[in-house]
Amino acid sequence: MSLPILVERDGYIATVVLNQPDKLNAMSKAMWAGLAEAMTLLSGDAAVRCIVVRGAGGKAFCPGADIGEFEHERSNAVQAADYGRVIRSAIDAMSNCPQPLVAQIDGVCVGGGLLIASLCDIRICGEASRFGVPVRNLGLVEAYAEMAPLVRLAGADVALEILLEGRIFGAAEAREKRLVTRVVPDSDVAMAARASASRIAEGAPLVARWHKKFARRLQDPRPIDEAEEAECYACFDTEDFRIGWAAFQAKRKPRFMGR
């Protein structure tokens, strides 16, 4: 049997692949568990500077849950709560990942697929991509942890519109709702995601991690304390700052070390 989640490595860039192409990468319980494990392992790997998340097969990112599992895995509240804990472990692993995450969105990105994409920092889709969260049609509720990334991106009112109407909509509307950061021709999605990841990987990796951390912290209404303010200037004591400074003065491209 093929692994539910694949991890590919190419230099500083890792790719996490949702691997159920015969079902357009619908998320099974094993896939959620595998996603949590992959993200946790990659988060602890200092050699990884950027992570791309994509669906296998190139036809779809993910259409949501693997409905075929419901009879045995989500047929009542007790089972659903256990399943939800597995989903939450993947959400936590992606949320806590220090490296920038790039979603390569081919085709459909619905339900749990939109959740996964929403946990990424950059979301690139094709012009024909489709989005939505039609769980109302199944009589299902998005749990707090599952709804939170959508609310963070689109705001509570737009998130409610998506959930209450259960509509499937296109890439242009998704961009308008801030669900994606970039829309490109369908044939260019993989290339655009790779180019984005490469640009990130070429930059100072500690700086990328700090910027991601600071952006998330700014969503917290608590005042920034003195220790957090001081962290903003820690970069000046890094080897990468000296590398970047010297490269700028010499008018050459820097090669950062992550130190």
Structure description:
With 259 residues, this protein is α/β, with parallel strands linked by helices. The chain contains eleven helices and nine strands. The strands form two sheets. A six-stranded mixed beta sheet has the order 1-2-3-4-6-9, sandwiched between helices. Helix 1 links the parallel strand 2 and strand 3. Helix 1 (29-43) runs parallel beside helix 3. It is globular and about 60 Å long.
What is the name of the CATH superfamily of the largest domain?
Answer: 2-enoyl-CoA Hydratase, Chain A, domain 1
Instruction: Summarize the main sheet.
Output: 6 strands, mixed
Q: What is the string of helix and strand elements?
A: EEHEHHEEHEEHHEHEHHHH
Coarse morphology: globular
- As for the number of domains, it is 2
What structural class do you assign from the helix and strand content? alpha/beta
Based on the coordinates given, report the CATH architecture of the largest domain.
Alpha-Beta Complex
Alpha carbon gyration radius: 19 Å
Describe the structure concisely for a colleague.
This protein is α/β, with parallel strands linked by helices and 259 residues long. It contains eleven helices and nine strands.
Topology overview:
Layout: E1 5-10, E2 13-18, H1 29-43, E3 50-55, H2 70-73, H3 77-95, E4 101-105, E5 108-110, H4 112-118, E6 122-126, E7 130-132, H5 144-154, H6 156-165, E8 169-170, H7 171-176, E9 182-184, H8 189-202, H9 205-217, H10 226-231, H11 239-250
Parallel strand pairs: 2-3, 3-4, 4-6, 5-7, 6-9
Antiparallel strand pairs: 1-2, 7-8
